Amino acid sequence: MTVAIVWLRRDLRLFDNPALHAAIRAGHAPLLVYIHAPQEDAPWQPGGAARWWLHHSLLALSSDVEERGGCLLLRRGPSKQVIDSLIAESGAVAVYWNRLYEPASRERDSAIKADLRARGIDAQSFAGHLLREPFAIKTGAGEPYRVFTPFWRNLAQRLDSNAPLAAPTSLPRISVDSESLDSWKLLPSIRWDHGFSERFSPGERGAAKSLDVFLDSAFEHYANGRDLPDRRGTSGLSPHLHFGEISPRRIVHRLTAQSTPAQRQLAEPYLRELGWRDFAHHLIYHFPHLPTDPMQRAFEAFEWAAIDAGQLRAWQQGRTGIPIVDAGMRELWQTGWMHNRVRMIVASFLTKNLRFHWLEGARWFWDTLVDADLANNTQGWQWTAGCGADAAPYFRIFNPVSQGERFDANGAYVKRFVPELAKLPAKAIHQPWVVGGVSGYPQPIVDLKSTREAALSAFALMRSSGS
Ligand SMILES: Cc1cc2nc3c(=O)[nH]c(=O)nc-3n(C[C@H](O)[C@H](O)[C@H](O)COP(=O)(O)OP(=O)(O)OC[C@H]3O[C@@H](n4cnc5c(N)ncnc54)[C@H](O)[C@@H]3O)c2cc1C
């Protein structure tokens, strides 16, 4: 039997894996390899929390592969060198993988594909990471989209609701040496990750279980529940999707196959959020400068404030004196994840009240989020800062007090992560300064009203100097 290398990257799954499926369908024995080459993603190599996830996800995948008789090979990069050496070691005639869309991955993958093909190796890549590939969706004029709603209208008509591809029931064992996962030292040396495993189970089974739990308990009320951070109103699938432990097609299929029109309507808000994920990838594919440069060029002249290290640390550590901001930042540190509504609030506070460059926040999230994803994180930060595609207008500055009162009305979320405030009555929990503050909890590091006005003036200045 001929051998095909199946190069796994952020598709750490056996179910609905197009590259793996194609290798088997072509009659090859699949040789599954994961290549650890973080330097190839520089400067966006996986941060601390994502490395924790990767470690556990690879363990889970190894065990699933072994259960089917096979073996997941682990090798340290560079990717091209490892692939060449595996071809020599195994006599592989083909290399298959699923496509990624970040600028560094695209550049590397195209060079590897061209080189392999020039040497007569069957190199093929497949679509499996998104609902639709970024180049498959275009405006009427053939251009990339810059606004979400028309993008989603187009994408929603092209959702792939085909049944997902089955996972192989058995895999061959090909004798090629593997490295030990522990030798990669992916786990943090300072163990700040114990809360991560209470919240998440990395791996394909964990992903399937999260989807089941979500469909059983939160799906029906998602349209409103998704905005309330004190409950499990969302799916928690973001790290599973980032690492490709579940395919978006599988989710769409679960939500839409055999559904009645009413159920389909219920699924729409959730599918739309998956659409935002596709939109973020569409943007990074067509505008590869986005991880560092604003989508709206006017913002190149915006006067961000000089970084005050003490204020930045207070934000990172959840000690700003603004309860919902602190609760969010502590949730992030303790669990490796933060609720979407609160991500917007903490990002608005950093970029508008403190007026720090959005990249400061994006970099902190990059290191601390288990779902850190270059496309989604860049879009989330640029959107909140006001400089992204289809962004919230700059003058829309989240008021963390009224946001807290609206979305965490009884203060349950704040109390969970900021226990110093647990005894405060609900009406004071989002602004403890009205009752004179609480001992052990900081006073606000900035005045919300005057910093809001200063941000609006800086924005007006940018607009007037640009016109
Ligand atoms: C400042 C900021 C930074 C962010 N950084 C990231 C990041 O690094 N990685 C990441 O996956 N998401 C990021 N998001 C988007 C969003 O907050 C998370 O995807 C969401 O909170 C994940 O929780 P969930 O899986 O329970 O979401 P659900 O509500 O269950 O949504 C389902 C899926 O849709 C996708 N999705 C939902 N909302 C968005 C969105 N606004 N943009 C893009 N995709 C979305 C995610 O893949 C998510 O798993 C960021 C948002 C902001 C405002």
What characterizes the major β-sheet? 5 strands, parallel
User: What bound compounds does this protein have?
Assistant: flavin-adenine dinucleotide
Secondary-structure element order, N to C: EHEHEHEHEHHHHHHHHHHHHHHHH
CATH fold-level name of the largest domain: DNA Cyclobutane Dipyrimidine Photolyase, subunit A, domain 3
The radius of gyration over CA amounts to 23 Å
The parts where pLDDT drops under 50 for at least 5 residues are none
- Global geometry: globular
Number of DSSP strand runs: 5
Classify the helix fraction into a percent range: 40-55%
Mean pLDDT: 96
Tell me about this structure.
The chain has 467 residues and is mainly alpha-helical. It folds into three domains: 3-127, HUPs (Rossmann fold, 3-Layer(aba) Sandwich), CATH 3.40.50; 130-163 and 203-286, Alpha Horseshoe (Serine Threonine Protein Phosphatase 5, Tetratricopeptide repeat), CATH 1.25.40; 297-466, Orthogonal Bundle (DNA Cyclobutane Dipyrimidine Photolyase, subunit A, domain 3). It is 48% helix and 6% strand. The protein has 20 helices and five strands. β2, α2 (48-67) and β3 form a beta-alpha-beta unit. The longest helix has 26 residues, at 261-286. The relative contact order is 0.11. Bound molecules: flavin-adenine dinucleotide. Flavin-adenine dinucleotide (FAD) binds next to α9, α11, α14 and α16.
